[in-house]
Write a structure and sequence with these properties.
Blueprint lengths: L9 E3 L1 H10 L1 H21 L4 E9 L9 H11 L2 H11 L2 H11 L15 H8 L11 H12 E5 L5 E8 L2 H59 L10 H36 L7 H4 L2 H20 L8 H89 L10 E5 L12 H27 L3 E3 L5 H13 L26 H4 L14 H11 L3 E5 L4 H16 L4 E5 L5 H7 L7 H5 L10 E2 L6 E3 L6 H4 L6 H9 L4 E5 L5 H5 L8 E5 L5 H13 L4 E5 L16
């Protein structure tokens, strides 16, 4: 019997499911062994199939005498991804397959004839028109279809290698066919190159003869046009008129320079004679042989006169004779200078006449050159036509010679090579007996176990009733119980936030400084439900609960978290008390990783968040690590709270009997919600707490008493 009656809520008993499978373990083992045996026999009965593979590398291959630049251009096209995919399709072409089938004589093998492998089941399906009869196709097509089913051609990922795999019942045939396909493919590629070269040769030969005729005619027209127009070629590449004009222009420039030079020389001699300056510095005068002799004679006479003047008087006949000779020599020098001047002036006149004559010749040649320029327009057109025809002829001749040199089959290798030949396999690739038996055994075991578990569920033996109260009733009951705890039931333990705090001086007399605080009219109106409703309305992301009276205040904070969770709010409670009482209430134990483990680096953040066993609220327990070592990293508490506020609607921190200094270690904001959790208000503690938080500048201080759960709360809020 299941023990489930009426509309009682039930749950699945996993232990009963396991016990049900274990109770039938012999049956499970027997069925599993039976499945393994069937798989083993079936695998052994299946005809073994063998597989072998040949691999081809696609790469450009050309003769050694090929043009390297052309080879590079062909390589870039050949190694394109689309081109390699095209080679894969070419290997699967019907023509290549027919060639291999014919060379290997596959038409005579029963393996490739579907009609020979007919079975009783196949005949029944054919009779019911559920399967097409293989005899409806011609024999050639049946062989091709069987061949294609066993053939696999693929490109190896990330490479230019193509794999050819074939499956057959005969291991020798499984290795022979991939090799035969690779050989046929390479021969086909090489033959395609030979056909291309032969076709190019046949097409180029008549074209070359035609171009030779056209080139001859074009060059003949150029020669006839030159003769008719008188455009005789020169060494410089131009026509005769242009060359003549250039020569005349160059000669005219030279003559004009000579003329200007002669005029300048004549003027310098003329200036020297008119001014009476010595003409020894003039190049034309000093280069004259007569002047040089006269100057030598003049120098000798001058020397004699100077020698005789020391011993003879000025009127001495010898001195007079020498002076008369010196004057005669100087007269001859002036006359010779005049002759030189006349010679230079004659040179200038000759240059002028030569210039005039060259100007006349230049004008005539210019007219002829202009006409020759007009005639050259037609000549250039004829020359361009002849050059184009000759360039095309030379290109065709080069292509013809290249194609003719590749007419031999050894000169046109295929753009691929075999990198791995197929070898005869020893072990069949199918069936693999051990993997098949293992998989079938495991599947049989799983299916048998599932069937047994389903039988247990349908019989009701694996169902158990959910005993006790519902979740909401338990939450409410425990809430009432923990709220009813006396505030003096347990001594108030120090808060975690008070660890490693410096000892403070003794407080001064509080009686003289105690502020006067009005007692609320009805203390029981500060209930947990009212505070929960207030927090839901304020949408506060963070609330810090202070329990001056100890664990009974912490219990009320737990009840507040559960109340908020039951209202649909995503709330997480952080246990920062020294006693760990909230952890005990929500986790039924204190061994879970929590705040101290996170601060000590001994637990991950996600591992410290746990779910309450009585509600949908989450909590972070106190933890199991050393509290003093953990609080050395208390500066990271604000980062922890920031991360929690981004994931939850409300983060509720239970700080135990913490003071203002401890709260300030959690957050520096003065607008945070401060909840004084006091199930039974102790006036001295209440006034002291309110006063300390007021003096610290906290604006929102809320009193929570565990009295009336359903009354309308009057939230005591202290504004700064």
């Amino acid at each position: 019997m299941s023990g489930v009656t009426g509309n009682q809520d039930v749950d699945i008993d996993l232990a009963q499911l396991v016990r049900g499978v274990w109770a039938r373990r012999l049956k499970v083992v027997a069925i599993t062994l039976l499945g393994a045996g069937v798989a083993f026999v079936g695998a052994k009965m299946v005809s073994p199939k063998y597989r072998s593979e040949t691999r081809i590398l696609i790469e450009p291959r050309a003769p050694a005498f090929a043009n390297a630049q052309a080879a590079d251009a062909n390589a870039s096209q050949l190694l394109d991804e689309l081109n390699i995919s095209s080679q894969v399709q070419l290997l699967q072409s019907a023509d290549l397959i027919k060639q291999v089938i014919s060379s290997q004589k596959l038409y005579d093998l029963p393996e490739f004839d579907a009609a020979a492998d007919s079975s009783a089941l196949g005949d029944i399906l054919i009779a019911l028109n559920l399967k097409k009869s293989p005899l409806a196709n011609p024999p050639e097509e049946r062989v091709i279809n069987a061949f294609v089913e066993r053939l696999q051609v693929y490109q190896v990922p990330g490479s230019r290698v193509i794999g050819i795999t074939f499956t057959s019942k005969d291991p020798a045939l499984a290795a022979a066919i991939p090799n035969a396909m690779a050989a046929a493919y390479l021969a086909k590629q090489s033959g395609a190159k030979l056909d291309s070269n032969s076709e190019a040769t046949r097409w180029l030969e008549p074209e070359i003869e035609t171009l030779r005729t056209k080139v001859s005619e074009a060059e003949q027209k150029v020669a006839e046009y030159r003769t008719a127009r008188g455009l005789l070629p020169t060494n410089g590449g131009g026509n005769f008129q242009t060359q003549q004009l250039n020569d005349i222009s160059a000669e005219l420039t030279r003559v004009r320079g000579d003329k200007v030079n002669a005029q300048a020389r004549a003027q310098s001699v003329r200036n020297a004679l008119s001014s009476g300056e010595p003409s020894d510095t003039l190049q034309d005068i000093m280069s004259s042989q007569a002047i040089q002799r006269l100057k030598g004679t003049e120098s000798g006479l001058q020397s004699q006169i100077s020698d005789l003047q020391t011993s003879l008087l000025n009127n001495h006949p010898r001195l007079k004779s020498l002076r008369a000779q010196l004057a005669d020599i100087r007269t001859q020098i002036r006359q010779e200078t005049q002759k030189i001047l006349a010679s230079i002036e004659n040179e200038a006149k000759v240059a002028t006449l030569r210039e005039q004559e060259l100007d006349q010749q230049s004008n005539k040649v210019k007219a002829n050159s202009a006409q020759a320029g007009e005639d050259e327009v037609g000549l250039n057109a004829l020359q361009r036509e002849a050059a184009a025809q000759r360039q095309l002829l030379e290109t065709y001749l080069a292509r013809f010679r290249e194609a003719a040199s590749r007419a031999d089959k050894n000169s046109s290798p295929a753009d691929a090579r075999i990198v791995s030949t197929a070898v005869q396999p020893v072990d069949p690739y199918f069936p693999k007996v051990v993997p098949i038996v293992a998989v079938v055994s495991f599947a049989t075991f799983i299916m048998t176990s599932i069937v047994i578990m389903l039988a247990e569920l349908f019989s009701g033996r694996a169902l158990r009733p959910i005993s006790g109260y519902g979740t909401e009733e338990r939450v409410e009951q425990e809430t009432v119980e923990i709220v009813a705890v006396s505030p003096r039931a347990r001594m108030a333990a120090p808060s975690m936030l008070a660890v490693q705090q410096d000892e403070q001086d003794e407080r001064e007399d509080e009686a003289a400084e105690e502020p006067v605080v009005e007692q609320p009219e009805e203390e029981n109106e500060f209930s947990i439900a009212s505070v929960a409703q207030y927090l839901l309305g304020s949408r506060a992301p963070l609330a810090i609960a202070i329990s001056p009276t100890g664990d009974n205040g912490s219990a009320a904070t737990v009840a507040l978290a559960r109340t908020l969770a039951s209202a649909g709010s995503r709330v997480v409670l952080v246990d920062m008390t020294g006693s760990g009482h909230p952890t005990e209430l929500m986790a039924q134990g204190r061994s879970l990783p929590g705040v101290t483990d996170l601060l000590c680096g001994e637990a991950a953040f996600g591992d410290t968040i746990h779910g309450d066993h009585l509600s949908d609220a989450h909590f972070i327990p106190q933890g199991t690590s050393d509290m003093r070592r953990a609080m050395r990293g208390a500066d990271r508490l604000s980062l922890l709270l920031d991360a929690l506020t981004s994931a939850y609607d409300l983060v509720l921190v239970e700080s135990g009997a913490a003071d203002v200094a401890g709260v300030s270690r959690l957050t520096h904001s003065k607008t945070v919600e401060i909840i004084l959790s006091m199930p039974e208000i102790v006036e001295e503690q209440f006034v002291a707490a309110m006063t300390s938080f007021e003096e610290a500048g906290y604006e929102r201080v809320v009193l929570m008493s565990g009295g009336n759960m359903d009354g309308n709360a009057t939230v005591a809020q202290q504004a700064a």
